[in-house]
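Researcher: Batch entry, complex prediction.
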Amino acid sequence: MGRRPRDPAEPETYNRLTVLRAERELSRQDLALAVGVHQQTVGYLERGEYAPSLVLALRIARFFELPVEAVFSLEPLPPLSVTVYRQEQT
Amino acid sequence: MKNSRAILGATTATDGMRKKVARLERSRLADWFDAQGRRRALVGAWAALLFALPVSAFVGFHFAAAMTGLSAFLGAGLLRHVVRMAADLPDAYLDERQVATRDRAYLYAYRTVASTGPIALFAIYLSMDLLDYVPSSTHLWAVGWSTLIMSVGAPSAALAWIEPDGRSGSEPDRVGHRS
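Model: Structure tokens for the complex:
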């Protein structure tokens, strides 16, 4: 998901939060409570309207038991299905 | 603006603070202003009142000026109520986005107050020098009150203006679960 930055100096960030949350059947409230933010903040993160701090990004990645670069990226992320299919083929 | 309780589960909140948060969350009026458009309309109306206060006094409508001043003062109170969660709670009870938004709003408010107040004074001094204008006490009171109310309400107004739409009902909270 692309970020729509208000400040042109801020870099765009992308994440897979919506997919990961759906995959694990979590509500925003569940994720918010797990990582210690308000559920609205989860919404802003998912829509790419807010770039998390390093601490929050690491906390979210740890919650999903994934490396942080699998959840957040400065480049557009390919769909998870494509990534998994490529890995299976190699 | 509806902020709230997520942090309370993750920190060592005192009973007093939990009660305060619960009390702050119960406001239906503030919930109604969860939409950014409504908040911005309120800020616009409040700014118009601040402008109308000295104009009414200069035109000679003293009663209207007094009523406008009272309305602007009540408007500042309403703005404070609308942003009560982010404005009243300590940093420990807000997440990083809420703290960042509040800090940015307070910076904008500081810049507004720091520029508008001196500009109003400068305009009065300039008109005294160039136009031989002698301000009456009513005029000075009107400008003074307008600036004072703006100083009091500017942080809340800036916060109400920049906080994004809550969008509480526009997107599904839970996605992709089995039915």
